[in-house]
Amino acid sequence: MQNAGIKLEFPTNVLNTMSIFLAVAVLVYSVVIGTARYEARADKLTQCGDNLKDLSRELDNQSENSSINITDLEKKYSHLISDTENHTRTDYLAATLEMRRDFMQ
Fold it and tell me: TM segments (predicted)?
């Protein structure tokens, strides 16, 4: 805009400073996002979900045979969730907003 000869509300030095600040902010944001390893975290969460489904099926099978060993299932469950990051309170709130029917009381 400065080279186009259009009259601007801010002086050139203010616009240059703002441009530098925004460029650095975008660079920092890009680095932070790049190091967050979302793909690896998502894979870990997917694997944990699959393992929890397997544990749920095991519980269903044991309940049909009426020979449930709660202690073993509790140990397996604790082991499965110990390697996975926990959800935050905002994750729960977002889920309740997205799936209102499932959380109706």
Answer: 20-38
